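ingest -> validate -> predict -> emit
validate: passed (alphabet ok, no gaps, 245 aa)
predict: started
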Amino acid sequence: MKILYLDESGDHSLDKIDPKYPVFVLGGVIINGVAARKAIDRELSQFKQQFFGRDDLILHTADIVRARNGFESLTDSTARRDFTHALNALLRKLDFQVVACVIKKDQHRSLYGASAIDPYLLSLRVLVERFCQEIGHSRDGGMIYAERRLPELDRSLEKAWMEIQKSGTPYKRGSEITNRIVDLSLKEKQSNIGGLQLADLVVSPIGRMVIGKEPQEDWEIVRSKFRQGPTGYEGFGLVVMPRQP
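emit:
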């Protein structure tokens, strides 16, 4: 079974848009099969044991950047350099695909005004379509996991998923989606699920690239992992909206 692990970068509000980060990114990783999932969990566990002497730490971008919640040793520049180098090497090694949808919120709001679709619902539709395409007609189907957040945000996600199951998307009927994707399940951060930690690590580099920040090595790794189509990853692994004419 293919599993899509989701995370987001930025917030999906169209009422208040941060000029320093005016995008919403919903993205994640697709891992195919039990063996691949077990291998990723094992590699991440060994990585955390190597650097911190424990494997119950959750790899979370905000905590890594701010050197908090178990990552305090990264305040040392040498330790941070070694950690970053090893983490990038591990990401290159692991077997997963990246899919993401980025909503440029200013342009989305300007284009559609009051009728603008909520960025979370819009991007979830896009990723469900790509995930269905990736699953194809496999008998095993697929599953989506996302991390639990605040209760109101979890309710919004569950509502969006129910709407997609019922009404489908512009390119997939609801029945086709439910036939291919078993369910969308929310998991606690402390469950220490490797796929959810990878999803967290890949979404921020995508957002930085779209807003024009200087690309770093993590973006190059993510770009190499995007789901590919006949013409590359654009539109197949990465969708940026509104689309440019």
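The chain has a mean pLDDT of 95.
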